[in-house]
Fold this protein.
Amino acid sequence: MSGHAHVDGKLPHEPEKATLEGRNKVLGFWLFLGGETVLFGTLFSAFLALRHQVGDGNPTANELFELPTVALATFILLTSSLTSVFAIQSMHTNKVKSMLWWLVITVIFGLAFLGLEIYEFNNYVHEGHKFSTSAFSSSFYTLVGFHGAHVLFGVLWISILIAQVLKKGLNVVTAPKIYVAGMYWHFIDVVWVFIFTVVYLMGKVG
Amino acid sequence: MAHGHKVKRYSGLKDWLTTVDHKKIGILYLLSGGFFFLVGGLEALLIRIQLWKPLNDFVAAHTFNELLTMHGTTMIFLAAMPMIFALMNAIVPLQIGARDVAFPFVNAIGFWTFFAGGVLLNVSWFAGGAPDAGWTAYAPLSTATYSSTHGLDYYVIGLQIAGIGTLVGGINFLATIINMRAPGMSFMRMPMFTWTAFITSALILFAFPALTVGLVAMMFDRVFSANFFEPTNGGNAVLWEHIFWIFGHPEVYILILPAFGVISEVISTFSRKRLFGYSSMVFATVLIGFLGFMVWAHHMFTTGLGPVANALFSIATMLIAVPTGIKIFNWLFTMWGGSIRFTTANLFAVGFVPTFVMGGVTGVMLAAAPADFQYHDSYFVVAHFHYVIVGGLILGLFSGLFYWWPKMFGRMLNETLGKIFFWLFFIGFHLTFFVQHFLGLMGMPRRVWTYLDGLGFNNLNLISTIGAMTMGLGTIVFLINIVVTSAKPRNASNDPWEDGRTLEWTIPSPAPEYNFAQTPLVRGYDAFWKEKMEGKTEMVPAEPLGPIHMPSPSSLPLFMSIGLFIAGLGFMYAKGDYGTGAWAWILHHHIVAIFGLAITLTCMFLRSVFDDHGFHIETDEILRDKGVKA
């Protein structure tokens, strides 16, 4: 528990793992992501079980989904994963300013993705695809909405971390926070890859 | 070392509300788990009184449904789980030579969210009716169509909040056991209780999120008119069964594995022998954890999954008997040739073995799918799962409580009262549940409010009720024991059973705030016993004496769970007819729920922004502690 050992001068190469607290945080977050995997896995299962239960007269997946919008959202989110990698790389070389810029870009991409999702959901509702329309609609909005809520949480979280680094600098306390936020961001990207495939592509095909 | 941060310590109630010390959190878990155990036990007694004679009307039919639902839900989620966490908190860090858990703050969140969820669930009794669809809350019985009161809302939201606590608790113990072990404490030198805590935590991590999704889906159905389980709009009621049991069956192993751990420790200590087949015990624990995820559909044989699915799940279920059998034989061989001492703890452990075997045998009977069509939803099932949960987990918990009570509280429980408790509880247990096997085979369905005269059920039900009363009497003796003990001086020695084998017996009872003045060096399995065999009385330290860094207490976990509690109520009461006043507007627009969530998120924000520097316990204070004890 040597805690917040005051590091004078240079940070170690992997500042997120320099202290036991940091190592605990990274490990604990990996475990948390394991639980999140089960969470989304169950949501996917529920969606797969219910996705054909559209009901009479309601728009089907094939009629609803506009792949160009979704493809754009996918492109944006996947790019934001790349920019978060750049942020972590900058952290490892102790370039605080470039790290902060990459984080800001990541947040902007996240916001753009959310904007597109809100636009998309709004369109669906106008086409009669409401949350309570059918089992398909409920499970669709729950799965994609859970992911969207995760993106929103990530955007807020990374914004708070940016402010913290501006105030406190990069040290062995803030570095693990940035690192696990990066892990989180990759995770919601991976989930989106599955959503794009299972919800949208499969919705268009079958 | 960073000195100069003010020592933050509170006393009295404030200390308990803000503590992040795993030993105090363990005691909090024990107190609240014990309280809910009494509530659940009282509900059980009311159920048994209603059933003691045919056509009884002691409670109304509707109340009976509420009682059986709340009995199951309370016992599983609010009594058994927290009492397991109580022992894990109190003992696991000590057994691996750690000063604390990996996330002390998260540990407090775990406790307070569990507590908020438990209280919320029980508020339902005073708010127009408790949940009444059974602890499994099968759809469509639990959907808004067939359950229009708020009872089920309390169930889905209360359990979600409590589930957060369990999940973060599981993550915490996984990280603690992986990262915080003392030098030399390799995985294959870990005490068996720590191993079972480890596997149980892994099961929690992978099982509870599934329940959360199920509960969220059902909450959306009930509160926001979604259609997951609503067949009229394409929903699927069987989906709930799958989701529930994908969580629910691993949950059974989450409950029983820590009891296996306790029994291994107690039998080994009081036989004065190394645990027989330690590595096979570890292997069996891991295997049970693994197989536990592949058997959920054996709860659904009669749902109509078809012969192929039923056969596969049947075989997978029977396979679990193999690692469990390994464990049983290991305990027997540990006792074989040992110099056995029948303390209360060991009585519970030895009583556990045949009782659990009986539950296991009926488990294999139920695993045979064709036979299960006969047993399904009968009292045979009730007898089976009470044999594994009460005869398994609860006997294990009591064994652990008697064994580790001095380490938790510094006082030995009274052995005479303990033995009276054991015999009353043990005999009462078998009286209650043994006859229920036959009631089931004779055709008495479970969850019935009453039964007709002349079916041959009368005598067996009467015996069962007498047995339940006997268990209640035993529990009263245990409570008296606690009161009597707490009036005695706090004088338990480091190793009060004198045959302690593991690290927790090398430090004072109760353990000081920092657990180990110096982190011990572990040189083998049964670390303390190994030193004893070489004539030493304490562990070799792995580090010089120095100031110890401690985390600060915090009130944020308490407020986070209060926020969730308020949000839960807000979501529940958003729908409904409240007229047109301001209050109606507030509820309909989810203002209460948003307010509650805002409290929780603000607490998270504060925790993120303000670093906890903790404080240091200085060397002279550690030496003073040592001096007092010497």
